[in-house]
Amino acid sequence: FAQIPAEESEDEPPSREEQADAWLGERDAAERSNEGAVTEEAEGDGQRDGEEAEQLEQTAVLSNKPRKKKKKRKTKKTSSGETLVCLCLLLMERREDTNGLSQQSQSGLIADSRPLLYIEHRNLNPENELKRYFGARAVLGDQRPRQRQYVRSTWLTAPKNTWPRYSSTGITMQLLDTRRGAQHFTFKHHREYQQVQFKFLDAVESMDPNNIVPLLEALEPYHVDSLLQLSDVCRMQEDQEMARDLVERALYSLECSFHPVFSLTSGTCRLDYRRPENRAFFLALFKHLMFLEKRGCPRTALEFCKLILSLDPENDPLCVLLLIDFLSLRAREYTFLTRMFQEWESHRNLSQLPNFAFSVPLAYFFLSQQEERSEPELSQARERAAQLIQLALIMFPSVLMPLLDHCSVQPDARVASHSFFGLNARISQPPALNQLTSLYVGRTHSLWKDPAVMAWLETNVHEVLRMVDAQDPLVEESEHKRKMRYQSAPRNIYRHIILSEMKEAMAALPLEVTSQPVMGFDPLPPLDSIVSYTRPERTNRPSNESTLSLFFRSLLPNFNLQADIRPDGEEEAGAGQDLNQGVNRLMAAMRDMLANIQFQEPPRDDNPEGDGDWD
């Protein structure tokens, strides 16, 4: 009975009467299989204990006639049913928290006793979510998929028959140590895989994606970085299906190399993003959840988001905290979002992020609209929602006008003319805060288009304006916090904005981020990376050439200023001669180019009247 409230979250839990009838029905079916008088069974059954044995004895005393079995069973059923209902009521009362709010299995104000970042394997499969929406027949069809015998079963992705046959890729996972109850792992590249990695880096520097394809075809069909880089190329070419397939293949390759102790569901396994070998797993998970969200599977995407956060919750290298609130609202997991805010606010200051400041009260508002809740729960949710949304509007006033603009809502005259939510609120805020607000508005504005949400927001906006006009001390305190904080965003926020590709936030990125090249397989690597192996130096580096030399080499492919550079270890006596030869070669190339330039004379108009009409 302790597991009754924790049944399948996607199904509606049965009522107490239905549970009692089902339980008693099973008991009656078991009793019908036994033949003989009830009196003999009660007297001869010495192994029964508790209330059931007492009830059987009382039934035997009432009558020994076999014709009255039905009547006696009916009396026993009524008594057992009342006992079961009382037991269920007692269990439900014991599971109530200190606030008097009963625990709900699907969505409630207080979540269950499992860890916050608990991962369920069934929620990692998007087909399970699609089956709940459209039914199994619409998802799977009439034909059952047949898998090959050598395909390995995995949790993150389902291998496809069109994929190359998997073999050892040269990637393994090893356990580094165990600290404070968490196990720290790392991926490791073998020597053969390192050679493929070096060739991949050469192909990336050539700026030609066609050079990456031979690596997958001939050397390593499951090279993770090549799969991720080609996925970005396919996505830019609007081939979303192939892009998603390549990311899933990368996840499959990484999962096949897991350590036997590594667990996806425990929430205690850690990976350090500072190690380049681990970054591919973070990025593959993030790209996969973005495809899932676009596919219409927000619950599955939320589970992958929780998985990324559980790998490094302290540092959060991809800053999925900026995304997890949106996925929670999309998946209608309001209880999870409110629970996360309650448990992490004290040590993570989630209210200082605009996305949590606005999404958490929105979650409380949606909870207050659920009719199956009791009136005290609804009243508490409404009060909590109003309190938090007013704090959010005071702390981040620059969110309101862009949010209304994205929702195609025209504010009333009082709000539009008030300076607190005006243009000055957006201009005066620091650049880092502008990036966060732009990211939130661009991502979650669709959740605010509900007329009921807009009416609730309008009421609280007018309440905030009343507080501003009354010169509430909280308004001045929030303004001081905005000026002191958000001076510069950490690197993981920039990395998240680049991976999310939100145009509103991309436009607000600083110049030091946009001016450097960003690679899809490793965007903005950490400055304190832990490098286990290094790439060998190349003998011929075009980067050492001057701009003029690169210009002439682009015009004349045979021109090479560094053709006569002596190898290392020889005497440097001819260094001056090599420089003179390079200069002479450059001058010769210039003379050759100027000699080959021919200027075309403009057509002469000797016959202005023309020779007649053109046929």
From TrEMBL:
Q: Which domain of life is it from?
A: Eukaryota
Which spans does this entry mark as compositional bias, Basic and acidic residues? 13-34
Which residue windows does the record flag with biased composition (Basic residues)?
65-76
Q: Write out the ranges of the annotated region (Disordered).
A: 1-76
Q: What cellular-component terms does GO give this entry?
A: RQC complex
Q: Which Pfam families match?
A: Tcf25
Q: What is this protein called?
A: Transcription factor 25
Q: Which organism is it from?
A: Opisthocomus hoazin
Taxonomic lineage of this organism? Eukaryota, Metazoa, Chordata, Craniata, Vertebrata
